[in-house]
Write a structure and sequence with these properties.
The protein is 25% helix and 23% strand. The chain has 408 residues and is of the alpha/beta class. The strands form four sheets. Strands 1-2-3-4-5-6-7-11 form an eight-stranded parallel β-barrel, surrounded by five helices.
């Protein structure tokens, strides 16, 4: 690159307060989350307004922005609740709301005029005319349709107002819909995926049934185990940070509001390290080998680069819809003193276990657990009570929030 590139924002998911803490601790520049309504993840772990205010205060104390997803495709009964909803949002001091509907946009501009507007990928923005139109309506940022290539993004960047920010998903789950708009779940289970209640029928195993042969199923492929014809691989662009920035993308977004705090920690850490490595030497960026190793240590499907290099004939994972899960979090670091690492247990671990400790901005550190000591000073062979505080010997300290994991 001929000139020093603009520093891209790293935007991480936060499905609950624990995931938010992990994302911030491991280097996110901004986080996005949902309230109890209007978000595309209808999960009970979303944030109440009280939690949203606390999350905002915490993020701002760390110099991190907070964006609230309000991006369902709403019906009449939804929009009638908008004034009260945005009235509560106004008290929470969020930095932006993410919307997909023009009516929601205009309502937000009236009730929370000082809050930035980001246009969700649900809006399906694939061209500069649409992007500029949303800018004219008051949007500060557009989250592009996931189906765009890098070349198409470059054209859009060149033909849009330079003050309009561009955001794109660079890592995480994909689906067979157009930028998240899908009706499979609605048809099969009456759970509206466009209002946050997707049951993911695209991950199910399908066979053919001929009407005159009831009960006789035919595999769609030659594999006798059947096939998952709608099951997308996961997006991963860790090897192409330089190309993403060169295309003019301002914010690199990690998918995963329905995923764990461990996922938020690991993936945020990898992309933080990758972005920082790119900025140190933009002309010679190559991912460190441990970047890809780290991304294999979270729950995921096989990776591919999405649509960034054009449509792919290798986008679907036909044999299985399951996740690859090779590592489990067992604890987080709670402190360090006198050669002892204090841990908050998450899952069972024992003396003799070989673990990895992941700290923000660093590759993993290997350690064999020699002792486990309770808060009462007793030695135990196994820690098997979640949320119990224990100590283990460790020759070096790690910051609070660092992750301890074991290979399963």
């Amino acid at each position: 690159m001929s000139s020093f590139p603009k520093r891209p924002e790293l935007l991480s998911p936060a499905g609950d307060p624990e995931a938010l803490f992990s994302a911030v601790t491991f280097g996110a520049d901004a986080v996005y989350l949902g309230a109890k309504s209007f978000g595309m993840r209808a999960s009970p772990a979303n944030f109440s307004f009280e939690q949203l205010k606390q999350a905002s205060d915490f993020c701002h104390s760390q110099g991190v922005n907070l964006y609230l997803a309000c991006n369902i495709i709403p019906r009449h009964e939804d929009v009638e609740q908008l004034p009260d909803f945005f009235g509560c949002v106004k008290e929470c001091n969020v930095d932006a709301v993410i919307v997909s509907d023009i009516g929601v946009l205009t309502t937000a501009k009236k009730i929370i005029p000082d809050v930035d507007i980001h246009i969700s990928t649900q809006a399906g923005i694939t061209n500069h005319l649409a992007a500029n139109a949303f800018y004219d309506l008051g949007a500060k940022r557009v989250v592009l349709a996931r189906e765009l290539s890098l070349e198409e993004i470059k054209i859009l960047r060149d033909k849009t107002n330079p003050n309009l920010e561009i955001e794109a998903f660079v890592h995480g789950s994909m689906c067979v819909s157009f930028s998240g708009r899908c009706l499979l779940s609605q048809y099969l289970l009456n759970r509206d995926p466009n209002r946050g209640a997707c049951s993911q029928p695209c991950r199910w195993k399908y066979s053919l049934l001929e009407e005159r042969r009831p009960g006789q199923y035919f595999d769609i492929s030659e594999d006798t185990n059947g096939t998952y014809i709608l099951n997308s691989k996961d997006l991963c662009m860790i090897s192409h940070i330089d190309k993403l920035v060169a295309a003019g993308i301002d914010s690199l977004k990690i998918e995963g509001r329905a995923k764990s705090a461990y996922y938020s920690a690991v993936v945020t850490n990898v992309y933080r390290c990758a972005i920082d490595a790119f900025l140190r030497d933009p002309d010679n960026y190559k991912p460190e080998p441990y970047f890809l190793d780290e991304l294999d240590k979270v729950s995921h499907r096989p990776y591919y680069p999405g649509f960034f290099f054009g449509p792919s004939d290798d986008a679907q994972e036909y044999p299985s819809a399951g996740y690859i899960r090779n590592w489990d979090i067992v604890a987080t670091v709670n402190g360090y003193s006198d050669g002892m690492l204090s841990l908050l247990e998450k899952n069972r671990f024992s003396v003799g276990d070989e673990v990895e400790i992941l700290a923000p901005g660093l590759p993993p550190y290997n350690l064999t657990i020699q002792r486990i000591i309770t808060g009462d000073g007793d030695d135990i062979s196994t820690a098997n009570h979640p949320h119990m505080l224990v100590k283990i010997p460790c020759p070096c300290s790690f910051p609070v929030g660092s992750v301890v994991r074991v290979q399963n």
